[in-house]
Amino acid sequence: MPIERSPTPPAAERPRALPRCLLPELVIRCPPVLLALDYDGTLSPIVNDPARAVPAPGARQALARLARHTQAVVLAVISGRDIDQLRSLLGLDFGVTMLGVHGAEVMETDGTRLLVEELGGAPHALDKVRDWLRANVPERAGLVIEDKRLSVALHYRNAAQKTAAPVIRAFETFVTAQAPELRLGRGKMVVEAMPKGADKGRAMRFLRARLRSDAPAVYFGDDVTDEDAFYALRHDGITVRVGDCAPSWAEYRVPSPLQVVEALDSMAEALERNAPAD
Q: Cβ atoms within 10 A of the Cβ of 32, count?
């Protein structure tokens, strides 16, 4: 049966600027480091068309540099997107564990795929959600249905507020009342129905369980769904919010995906400087 999920409580503190030397020193002094990142808004800028959300300049190259240091960095990307879409956008075929649909599905670095937990009645509930969306979402109104197989999202970034608001309310009411096997996830101009066990905090716990218990963990994210991961690491991880300085469970902040790339490059440069000579 799917595991019930306790909601992450709202945060009250605002994150502070990420110190420049913190992560480079961490990968040198405390390997292996589990480094996990969200995709949209973190490795890629937010855009109106999700299909066009390409990585920020230098992001692919920085990830590839880090992926070569397998003894020092365990690299993962955790996204609300499904894994096939994530792979296509990232364009990386080595060294990165990918977790899709907020951690519900996993693709190992060797291509092996698995589910983090049994889905129980979620597939049938998702079929009901699909039927409801087909019947109730108006066409050509800027509302976009994204079917990720293990979840279904309704994007409203390009819709007028007076059109989107009643549809979103009705969608949330339907999922809550008619699909109890699912939970609602809310992000930047998107609401999503997903299995109850799918959240990024659980995904981080899954990844950490594979390393030794004292291995440090780092997580970068930008959205409401990333707060689950920030909360899971609040006592023993390094958490970085990307974007605005709203209250967050993250301890640190960087302004945009470009500064995420800078942080990744700084880690790669530290590892390259300290690599043993051939």
A: 16
